[in-house]
């Protein structure tokens, strides 16, 4: 990656000289988005979807400063008809940072071909509860894992000299209340759970940050001096620029500017003339404007001048990128249950039933700002038909249970495709109420001009959080329970952006495969996995509990929400609650053994190693996971946490020595009294294996 922090800082003197030649108006113009809400609505009315072309901000032709050109994500470049990769949650299930970096490079190339220079799609928010509608855009429930995967995407995108923008800073894990909710958390929860993965991505070189809509500790995140100035630009020494989330990311000119907001996106309502006036009145110092301008100019020049490559439109949705999307879809497939029926035999499956309305739908995720518009999407039904050209493949949506039973009885294999779609979860759009804007808010005029809603790429009424249940729809449960027992050669394929409860119906089918939202080649990957061309190697990036009540409670429509220290697998383990399926779990069509474990300390790293052998008859992928335990801690800490992972591929009988290293820095806790990260000198439990469950782990100890 050429555009490292060190490289970017080498442009500081030049950026300062350019900014010195600018008028106040020119400097403020750099901080200004150029696309109004009305422009977006008009574009969509004319047949061009949200962010069909990059959205510009700033620029100065007189002094040779390019515009910032925003391109959304993260399942691909939103512009035009780009390659649609699996959603981030699916890619999180691969635990494959090399793959994620390659996806980042592909996205970066397509953005360059579209004429963009910033990718606003490194979404690394952590779901406090899996019901969060946009959690499909992040990598899972574990902060360390999110930090590693997000950092890989940052490196890949910036390898193509496209600015990687991480979002939404911070505590943005609710959808219906995102414009109004005030999130609170204690200092340890803030630093150890919700900010640590942002810090990882900053350390990886991310050159831009997008603020969040919500409030934190009573302040809008886009107005938060604490988050933007003190933590991000101060403690973390961030050299890049901060942009607001679109339209409602800035609510007050003076507060936002003084708090460290550098660019208002994607329109200009509170900056522009209002910001110039605030400077002239002494409410915002010109030094603050200069700082923002230098950050913007420095970053844009560094990335623009890093190469002189030309990217042809032919790179957009090219074969190489589509093949990569298929590889990602294949590697994310997570086998949650298998009573020996999978893989189905191609030769014996002369008649295959595909049941459930999602079986014949190209389901790639929500309809919000992350929506990609690929040139095609392979449905599960299409994938199965293509793989089995000589078999009869029967599709039925399952509305009539008796008819579904008859189809199942006469089939050699029964595949239920069930789960969610854009109506059920995702970025939420609805009319904007006075409780959000207030009667005198200048944003009201923009909203009224746009027809009374803030769309931001989402169709009104779509998406939102899963407020009613984390389980399947009632009719899908009834279909599985009624028809599953009819034919033992039955498998459920789950489609969705996060954890789906399975306890109510898991015993009524022989196999369960989590497919997430698997992208444009998802149907191909599902078919190849079900029929054995692909051996599933994905791992759950979340815990699956027996009861929803085992998870943290969230009031999805509220102005106040507290985030506790524990969530996900760490919460269940701390409370002694056995999960239905542990974090990091995933079955394979082969088997693996772990032996010869060793644990130690090497300089500033804790090291865990073991031998892993493929003891089955099929080539397979495995994710070796390292956890560290804190049983001897003098403060409240989790029982254990993920602190490393490595993907391997083994042929039948092959054995490999695997070593995982964890920086000792990652074992520290944040002391709110000293405001410092501190290392406890004690014995730490260290584990290595293939899930977070103790029965899947080998354990040792190290002393620090």
UniProtKB/TrEMBL annotation:
Keywords: Hydrolase. One of its GO terms (molecular function) is beta-glucosidase activity. SUPFAM superfamilies: (Trans)glycosidases, Beta-D-glucan exohydrolase, C-terminal domain. InterPro entries: Cellulose_deg_GH3 (IPR050288), Fn3-like (IPR026891), GH (IPR017853), Glyco_hydro_3_C (IPR002772), Glyco_hydro_3_C_sf (IPR036881), Glyco_hydro_3_N (IPR001764), Glyco_hydro_3_N_sf (IPR036962), Ig-like_fold (IPR013783). GO terms for biological process: glucan catabolic process. It comes from the Bacteria. Pfam families: Fn3-like, Glyco_hydro_3, Glyco_hydro_3_C. Residues 622-692 form the Fibronectin type III-like domain. Belongs to the glycosyl hydrolase 3 family. This is Glycoside hydrolase family 3 domain protein.
